[in-house]
């Protein structure tokens, strides 16, 4: 027994599972590739490049992916680096992200926030950040494209605080910027990392006393050194000190500067990150916190991907392992249906070939073959009836009225809607006035996936008609009066018969809130 416990502990200790959050074009694909190269990726779910170069795509499981050249669903990549095993959860950086993107963040123990030095904090970064912040996970910031002209580091720190509400602590600091960039100063290790050669192809690392060290002056020149000293003095006086406890609570984000495409600052970032980022964290359940080192295996499904292989039309349920050791062929209890199931076909994905996993540990993600028995949020466990916390739902922002083209197919239509809502592909509402069906999603892509799957799996053509609503708020009130929600809004019910108000704009929403002081308007279902 002792040996097993030690083994489990050491496997847990070496793992780091994180997601990279950013706005499209900030450099996530580039950064991910560089990280994978350091470790020599051992397992890729799909391919990092797939969504960029569709002609080389290996993850074109769905027609939509082929047409649009993007990865519909988040994938998982695993690699080893200096004794660590690292799982990167890829969240699609495309505008067309979906609730899956958000749910994937529940499987991460920390996040890397990637920011373009010229663009600063952008829309999609804000959304993803907020989901992470709600969970209170540590967030590490990488400010990318330092080789380009960008905004001042102070300016960016200010923006991070103003827009995201998190304080930041620079771990390194640029020496010069844009075309004048000559390197960075590592504040923690007191060393300079300088570009070498005209093409910046190599990097020289030099230990120094502190930032005043004349060695830096010799290396970077008077002008840049003066600037560096000025900046760092200001930071020493006015900046936040590094506080590990605050980092772990998600109250302070360590900031790293670099350039992914030049592979500059990436390795330093990775090494610091591995040291500071949390190992697999416990998860809350009906039986209290489940620790990763609990010997009994457990995990939860955070995502289901349909039709990964059109020839088989099977589905893959992505499971985050919370505790214990996974071994191929093991039996575990599927809590919701109350049955034991055998995990005989767990897979990682190595490009097109499905790579069968023999064993895995807390923090790892495994794909389970799903003949239709899994739902998002399902818990699997070897130790009795524990159910992990329910998967959060997210407030939809795009809405469309849905109807069936051929009325004779109504039964299939209903079945498809029921199953796809159950699976978490879309949210469905019914208007109180005319009993019309309205779909709600967080990204346009979800509509397309819905339409595609209704046709492919249920043989039903659906018509989607976009509606002008932008916000959904769950209404909690003693007495609900539908007549109150007619101007730039409409009253609907969700599938559990909760009242929800859809608003066309913020003004309409604010007016409703003001006029109904006794009512509560919640972002998600109560
Ligand atoms: P993603 O959409 O976030 O995955 O972004 P990509 O990794 O595809 O990068 C978007 C563009 O920015 C590509 O043209 C990259 O070559 C470029 N890029 C990425 N990192 C850097 C960088 O450090 N400096 C510069 N100048 N360009 C970069």
From TrEMBL:
Boundaries of every Tr-type G domain copy: 13-281
PROSITE patterns, sorted: G_TR_1 (PS00301), G_TR_2 (PS51722)
GO cellular component assignments: cytosol
Binding site for GTP: 22-29, 90-94, 144-147
Annotated CDD domains: RF3, RF3_II
UniProt entry keywords in alphabetical sequence: Cytoplasm, GTP-binding, Nucleotide-binding, Protein biosynthesis
Chief place of localization: cytoplasm
Localization terms from the record: Cytoplasm
InterPro entries according to UniProt: EF-G-like_DII, EFG_III/V, G_TR_CS, P-loop_NTPase, PrfC, RF3_C, RF3_dom_3_sf, RF3_GTP-bd
UniProt function note: Increases the formation of ribosomal termination complexes and stimulates activities of RF-1 and RF-2. It binds guanine nucleotides and has strong preference for UGA stop codons. It may interact directly with the ribosome. The stimulation of RF-1 and RF-2 is significantly reduced by GTP and GDP, but not by GMP.
Protein name: Peptide chain release factor 3
Organism per entry: Paenibacillus uliginis N3/975
Lineage: Bacteria, Bacillati, Bacillota, Bacilli, Bacillales
């Amino acid at each position: 027994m002792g040996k097993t416990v030690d083994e489990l502990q050491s496997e847990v200790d070496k793992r780091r599972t994180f997601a990279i959050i950013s706005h499209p074009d900030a450099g996530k694909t580039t950064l991910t590739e560089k990280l994978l190269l350091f470790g020599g990726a051992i397992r890729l779910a799909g391919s990092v490049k797939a969504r960029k170069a569709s002609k080389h795509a290996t993850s074109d499981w769905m027609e939509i992916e082929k047409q649009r050249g993007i990865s519909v669903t988040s994938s998982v990549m695993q690699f080893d680096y200096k004794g660590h095993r690292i799982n990167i959860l890829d969240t699609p950086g495309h505008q067309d992200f979906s609730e899956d993107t958000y749910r994937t963040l529940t499987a991460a123990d920390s996040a890397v926030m990637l920011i373009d030095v010229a663009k600063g904090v952008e829309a999609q970064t804000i959304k993803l950040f907020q989901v992470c912040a709600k969970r209170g996970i540590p967030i590490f910031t990488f400010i990318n494209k330092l080789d380009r002209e960008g905004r001042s580091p102070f300016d960016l720190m200010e923006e991070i605080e103003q827009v995201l509400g998190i304080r930041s602590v620079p771990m390194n600091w640029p020496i010069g910027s844009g075309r004048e960039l000559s390197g960075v100063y590592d504040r923690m290790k007191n060393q300079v990392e300088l570009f070498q050669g005209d093409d910046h192809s190599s990097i020289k690392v030099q230990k120094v006393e502190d930032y005043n060290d004349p060695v830096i002056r010799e290396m970077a020149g008077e002008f840049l050194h003066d600037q560096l000293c000025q900046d760092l003095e200001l930071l020493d006086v006015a900046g936040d000190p590094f506080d590990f406890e605050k980092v772990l609570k998600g109250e302070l984000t360590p900031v790293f500067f670099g350039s992914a495409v030049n592979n500059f600052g990436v390795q330093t970032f990775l090494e610091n990150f591995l040291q500071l980022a949390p190992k697999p964290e416990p998860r809350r359940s009906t039986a209290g916190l489940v620790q990763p080192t609990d010997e009994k295996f457990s995990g939860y499904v955070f995502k289901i991907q349909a039709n990964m292989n059109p020839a088989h039309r099977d589905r893959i349920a992505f499971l985050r392992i919370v505790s214990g050791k996974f071994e191929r062929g093991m039996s575990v209890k599927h809590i919701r249906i109350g049955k034991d199931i055998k995990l005989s076909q767990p897979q990682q994905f190595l490009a097109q070939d499905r790579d069968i996993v023999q064993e895995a540990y807390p923090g790892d993600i495994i794909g389970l073959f799903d003949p239709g028995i899994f739902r998002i949020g399902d818990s699997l466990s070897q130790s009795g009836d524990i159910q992990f916390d329910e998967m959060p739902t997210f407030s939809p922002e795009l809405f469309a009225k849905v109807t069936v083209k051929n009325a004779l197919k109504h039964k299939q239509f209903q079945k498809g809607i029921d199953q796809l809502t159950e699976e978490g592909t879309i949210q469905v509402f019914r208007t109180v006035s005319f009993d019309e069906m309205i779909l709600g999603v967080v990204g346009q892509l979800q509509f397309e996936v819905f339409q595609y799957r209704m046709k492919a799996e249920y043989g039903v053509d659906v018509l989607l008609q976009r509606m002008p609503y932008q916000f959904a708020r769950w209404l909690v009130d003693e007495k609900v009066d539908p007549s109150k929600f007619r101007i730039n809004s409409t009253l609907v019910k969700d599938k559990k018969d909760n009242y929800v108000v859809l608003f066309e704009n913020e003004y309409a929403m604010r007016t409703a809130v003001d006029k109904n002081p006794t009512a509560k308007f919640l972002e998600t279902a109560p």
